[in-house]
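hiii so um. not sure if this is the right channel but i have a protein structure encoded as tokens and i wanna go backwards to a sequence. like what aa goes where. can anyone help
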């Protein structure tokens, strides 16, 4: 019987492999740039024409190749980066399978010029559809240049499959961004159809982000740094007030390799939670450094996935690091991050760590308001002080909506003039507070506004252990089941900080001797049951979430409800307190607290 199994000729095998590795011009760009980085280049220039379809050229000043290596590098599985299977688990370089150049050479016309420092001249090799067409010696500077012309020239199906030049160019810019972000010490340029799109100088990560996204990012970034012995996190997040509604500034890297990781994205989203509107997406540029043995990257060359051995640990550390970054910048309500040291207890794997996580204490400027442009040091009024009618509204928040140039122009008299003469507060449907501001009409959801005010107040109390308590004349006995009773015991310190005074009478019964001052008129047992229920629902790995959770539940419970009549003084007090909050725009549940109907909109309604 004849043999039926034949080995595919290399050229065909390469073409098949190429289909996997090189899906579009941007894939070739990525592979060539990563090779240049692996070669230790300090300057890498990328030139493309017709979104990479006509030409992709990458020139580097890296280590170069010998004549033999120049020839060998186009062979499949030719790589200088690993030699045995175990090496796969200790990968530090970008490429490691020795497939990229063989693939590119299989489906394009490639010219390689390369020279090592120690050599007098360089080598030039021209290869087309895996066939070497020319090899010669050329005078050149040390380094390497790859010129890739007519990608997919022999794979028309693939070529036709490509998207519009604009779309393909976006892919190239995206790959360029990913590669350049994590290598800020290397200089890069990107030139497209003769036009230089990026000129990135060697610098630090912040400068690189500014080089890529614009110098105004200087103001927008907060550093994130966290070192533990298993995971090191560093990079930047975009300040909450600059969060965008569209995707595009979410960059995770693991050991400098770009990845997409919805679970870790959630860690950041969660850390931003009560700081940004529900429909906004936090921006970040974060590198996660782990021992290569703790991850599995050997999946697919084009996939941006990484499996962590202990993803929960990474989640917890990342979440805490971002919370800390926000807190340090005084944007977040006060949270005691030193408590996250207890995080170890919640993670089996974390216990393996030789050192406990230590989160530094964070000094908080309680007056900071990201939405306020001038510095304001007035202490935030207490809802408790209510009703404390003031002769004139504090007014300063109004400037927010006035001409930007008016801000800081000082004199009290002028301020008064800026304010509408007929300043007053109305209620619509006993649910929304309406008032006028310079730019138009301000509509505030009274329940959400009060929720935000109480939320920030409770977080502060949790932090300072300062919740005022009112004593119950007739202490209530509250019976729970065993499970709930033990959960409640976990929460006791927080509840006491808020003003609850609870005393355990027997394993399943607690005496409620005192309740928070803000809670008069509410049933204490019902409040506590709510807190316990939500705590069970959201039981999270993180202690700091516990405080947020309690503050959220309690503020939502105690805030004035919709359909509640308010006096003008009450409305005024509420509005003033809202704009004294750290975040006045969004409620803890992410909902918008107020809207402004500006003059143009009002005018247009009459057309
Ligand atoms: P890999 O990067 O996975 O090793 P490639 O096919 O991308 O596989 O590259 C094959 C080999 O060619 C590399 O291992 C490296 O030795 C060499 N090489 C590729 N590009 C360069 C370059 N710009 N400078 C120096 N050597 C290079
Ligand atoms: Mg490579």
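sure thing!! here u go:
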């Amino acid at each position: 019987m004849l043999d039926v199994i034949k080995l595919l000729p290399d050229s065909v095998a390469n073409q098949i492999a190429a289909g996997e590795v090189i899906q579009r011009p941007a894939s070739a760009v990525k592979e060539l740039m990563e090779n240049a980085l692996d070669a230790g280049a300090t300057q890498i220039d990328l030139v493309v024409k017709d979104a990479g379809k006509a030409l992709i050229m990458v020139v580097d000043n890296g280590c170069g190749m010998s004549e033999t290596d120049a020839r060998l590098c186009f062979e499949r599985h030719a790589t200088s980066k690993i030699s045995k299977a175990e090496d796969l688990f200790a990968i530090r370089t970008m490429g490691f399978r020795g497939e990229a150049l063989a693939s590119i050479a299989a489906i394009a016309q490639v010219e390689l010029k390369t020279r090592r420092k120690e050599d007098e001249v360089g080598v030039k090799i021209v290869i087309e559809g895996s066939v070497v067409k020319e090899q010669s010696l050329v005078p050149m500077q040390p380094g390497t240049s790859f010129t890739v012309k007519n990608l997919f020239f022999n794979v028309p199906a693939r070529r036709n499959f490509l998207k519009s030049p604009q779309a393909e160019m976006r892919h190239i810019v995206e790959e360029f961004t990913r590669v350049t972000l994590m290598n800020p010490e290397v200089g890069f340029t990107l030139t497209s159809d003769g036009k230089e799109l990026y000129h990135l100088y060697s610098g630090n990560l912040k400068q690189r982000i500014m080089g890529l996204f614009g110098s105004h990012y200087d103001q927008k970034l907060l550093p994130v740094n966290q070192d533990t012995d298993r995971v090191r996190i560093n990079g930047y997040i975009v300040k909450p007030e600059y969060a965008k509604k569209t995707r595009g500034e979410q960059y995770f890297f693991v050991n400098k390799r770009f990845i997409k990781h919805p679970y870790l994205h959630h860690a950041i989203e969660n850390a931003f939670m009560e700081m940004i509107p529900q429909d906004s997406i936090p921006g970040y540029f974060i590198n996660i450094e782990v021992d290569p043995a703790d991850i599995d990257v050997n999946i697919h060359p084009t996939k941006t996935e990484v499996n962590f051995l202990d993803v929960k640990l990474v989640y917890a550390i990342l979440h805490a690091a971002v919370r800390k970054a926000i807190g340090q910048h005084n944007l977040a309500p006060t949270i005691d991050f030193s408590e996250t040291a207890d995080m170890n207890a919640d993670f089996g794997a974390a216990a393996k760590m030789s050192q406990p996580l230590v989160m530094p204490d964070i000094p908080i400027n309680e007056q900071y308001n990201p939405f306020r442009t001038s510095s304001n040091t007035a202490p935030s009024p207490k809802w408790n002080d209510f009703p404390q009618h003031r002769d004139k509204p504090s007014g300063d928040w109004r400037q927010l909506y006035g001409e930007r140039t008016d801000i800081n122009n000082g004199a009290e008299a002028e301020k008064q003039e800026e304010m509408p003469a007929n300043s007053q507060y109305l209620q619509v449907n006993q649910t929304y507070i309406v008032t006028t501001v310079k730019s138009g009409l301000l509509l505030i959801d009274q329940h959400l506004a009060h929720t935000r005010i109480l939320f920030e107040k409770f977080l502060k109390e949790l932090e300072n252990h300062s919740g005022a308590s009112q004593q119950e004349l007739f202490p209530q006995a509250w019976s729970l089941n065993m499970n709930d009773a033990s959960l409640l015991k976990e929460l006791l310190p927080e509840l006491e900080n808020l003003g609850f005074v609870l005393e355990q009478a027997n394993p399943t019964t607690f005496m409620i001797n005192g309740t928070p001052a803000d809670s008069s008129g509410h049933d204490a047992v019902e409040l506590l049951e709510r807190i316990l229920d939500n705590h069970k629902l959201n039981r999270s790995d993180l202690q700091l979430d516990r405080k947020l959770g309690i503050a959220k539940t309690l503020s939502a419970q105690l805030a004035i409800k919709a359909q509640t009549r308010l006096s003008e003084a009450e409305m005024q007090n509420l509005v003033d307190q809202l704009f004294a909050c750290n975040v006045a725009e969004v409620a803890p549940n992410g909902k918008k607290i107020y809207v402004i109907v500006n003059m143009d909109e009002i005018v247009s309604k009459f057309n």
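oh and Residues 195 and 212 are 16 Å apart (CA to CA).
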